[in-house]
Amino acid sequence: MKNKNLQDERILSQHRKVYSEAYFISIILLIISLGLQQLLFNASLEQYAAELICILIPAVYIIIRHIILGLDLYSDKQHKKRILLLYSLLAGFMVTILNGIRNYINYADVYKRNGIGYFIAVLFITFISAAALVFIILSCLNYLSIRKQEKIQKQFDENEQDN
Known about the structure:
The protein has helices at about 1-40, 45-70, 80-115, 115-160. It is mainly alpha-helical. It is extended. The longest helix has about 45 residues, at about 115-160. The relative contact order is 0.08. The protein has two domains: about 1-70; about 75-163.
């Protein structure tokens, strides 16, 4: 009986891995679709809102479920601050690149006429703003996660003392 359960658990684990990979591929394709519509086709928000919703709602759900269950949001507890900083910088770069491309496409003649200095200044401000905002949001989520983990640990300690 134990071998059957063990095999079932391995099969279940493989199924979960396949579903997780499929979810990841779906999100990547939605992000590519969103980028193409926004940058190449100059689409308005109404035209790509469905893709944006399909990206944001599952991401928010995953974060909320992790916090409610007391699971750590980051896999590496030792380097949590580095991970927060790295994610913030990556998000800042991505937002800056996308915003820079879109601004240059829409306002190239203004930048050519007034000089590239304004364009670089806008990119710098965009990077700092996006990285700071993402860092603040991730820090708040990390704080909530830690608080929930401490609450769960306290409940376990109380239950252990009662027994």
